[in-house]
Amino acid sequence: MSRYILIQSKSPWESGDVGHFYALARELGERGDVTFFLVQNGVMAARIGASDAGLDGILGGKVRVLADDFSLRERGIEAGSLKEGVRSGAIEEVVDLLAGGAKALWH
Amino acid sequence: MATITIGIMDPPYESANTPTAFRLVEAAIRKGHNVNVFCYEGATALGFAGQKPHANAVHGASLEEEDHPNPKEWVKSLLAFAGEKNVKLVWCNCGMCVDERGVENQVEGVCRGSPVDAWKYSEASDGVLLIGTE
Fold first, then answer.
1. Domain of A60: which CATH number?
2. What is the block-wise mean pLDDT of chain B (134 residues), using blocks of 10 residues?
3. ipTM entry
4. Which of A28, A97, B34, B64 could form a disulfide with A5 if both were Cys (CB 3.0 to 4.6 A apart)?
5. What residues make up the domain containing A94?
6. Where does B3-48+68-88+101-131 sit in CATH, by number?
7. Among all residues of chain A, which has the CA nearest to that of B123?
8. A18 touches chain B (CB under 8 A)
């Protein structure tokens, strides 16, 4: 099974492409092991109450969703205020996936 | 120990992508992996030795108080860190991109190559990540 690491650096409110990236993650999740890593402004959509149907559509499914702990701290977002299905994660987890041969995409 | 190649395209002072790229490189080195960084387009200015720190008149901070870290210092630190950890960090610039921008004077340890080198690095790596611009 192919492994993928998709890294989302933008919030859904700054780029219309973000929705397509969520959709790609969902479709890849049907065929492989997918980690979706939110970083920089990408973490904004992970807050409880943030209206983002695209992200909500992949939570609780086959895609593992992580939010970069550093980006969360920069923006004053507590790990406890993340939506169910999103876990705070470290950038080392991205390194581990790259070192293990996961296919990586950045948006 | 794995080998990871990371492509960077954003110029200094432009995007949060740059510190994230630096963080990835640092974390990979800390975990004992070899890293190839290929800088393309504006990212070739990250290691430009002519960068100068500055004071902050708005905050009334002197040069020393401001302690503004220029990207070239981060590049130097990462190269030094790789040496401490006994792993290989290749920091390669696209030569044509360097010439276009007149940033030939780079900090020690930065090399010059071409997209062919980026392809070779990628072929020989366990993982590859390209951090593109917009």
1. 3.40.1260.10
2. 97 96 98 98 98 93 92 98 98 98 98 97 98 88
3. 0.96
4. A97
5. 3-106
6. 3.40.1260.10
7. A101
8. no
